[in-house]
Amino acid sequence: MQKKEQYNANKLQKRLRRQVGTAIADFNMIEAGDKVMVCLSGGKDSYTLLDILRNLQSHAPLQFELIAMNLDQKQPGFPEQVLPEYLTRIGMPFRIVEQDTYSVVKRVIAEGKTTCSLCSRLRRGVLYRVAKELGATKIALGHHRDDILETLFLNMFYGGKLKAMPPKLVSDDGQHIVIRPLAYCKEKDLEAYAAVADFPIIPCNLCGSQKNLQRQVIKEMMQLWDKKFPGRLETMFRALQNVQLSHLADPARYDFYNLKAQGQPVIDGDIAFDEETFEPNVEEMLAPITEETDENRFAAG
Hints:
CATH topology: Rossmann fold
Number of helices: 11
Order of helices and strands: HEHEHEHHEHEEHHHHH
Shape: globular
Largest sheet: 6 strands, mixed
């Protein structure tokens, strides 16, 4: 690797470390004594997640365990030796779970239909079971910033809900904490890092199912926005962290029914007669990224 390429690779790793460390601190994702089960699919996102978490583990002031977990769903052509060989080579504790969810999905879902939804539910059940068996206190998934925004638009456009993927949540069975440490990371950065690290990527099309066409439409829309309007995706993600319930329209989340004028200034009160204005340059609206180290951000959490 040439000197300039090495410099850019180090810069990229530092940025990802900082973003992951900041996300962990902001949402208190990992605490002292945690045992984190990192779900490894063989794709660029989960490889990078594991790599960055291992790096942080060696520098963080608090002690926590990592164990990689892969679910072999018995998809035809799945190269089952790739992950065990990689994890053994880097000295990473791991557990490979074999469960034929592929046959179940193929039996239940009609030919040509998208299998992702059922496959995801079956996979989730296995992850919860294995986390309990391993004594894992956190389950780490490889979803990144773009996944979160895509889910927001999918729910808005097709589901009629204002809902995305939270960086941290309680599992639907109420037994586990699920974390997404890559929540602040861009997909294109993860792609670049995976290429530099030369991870043994396993293709995600082994099941032969059709792509989620709705998600693909959203992905292409966001890629176009990112190309034509640099900074737009960053601003949209910031909106997820700056929610004003009083300016939406969900009476279950905000008590519009009993809303009364109290004769006192209200912090989030309406400015009905003021014209809404926005900065012409989106980049100027973005908060500057501090050079604070991920170790310090992690410690602060």
